[in-house]
Prior knowledge:
Strand content: 5-15%
Structural class: mainly alpha
Number of strands: 3
Number of helices: 5
Distance between the termini: 19 Å
Order of helices and strands: HEHEEHHH
Mean pLDDT: 76
Radius of gyration: 14 Å
Amino acid sequence: MSRQKQGVRLNASDFYPTPKWCYENLDIDWSKFSSAHEPCRGDGRIVEWLEEKNITTSYSEIREDKDFFDWDDSVDLIFTNPPFSLAQEFIDHSVARAFLLHKNLSTTLSLVQTLLLCF
């Protein structure tokens, strides 16, 4: 059993920057997305990477008092590595806010599954 599951956090803020290889190697046609939101900006590496893909990207970051659960815009893509302690809540809020979900349910669910497998 991990220390996290025993109630001992390895990192008090649940901040674990996502290694670039996790998202750089995803087999996704990024040109399908024109807007994105990163709910857990952290050090900004995912936001920067999405913007390099010409995807207009907004973000939330609790350490900047920008709570994802207060964010209520719609975008084509929500892309993040959420705190594991709140993963289900992040998934639920993301699915409710992702515009692509309403345009193409199977593509969105496939993308959510792919991202969850990566992280």
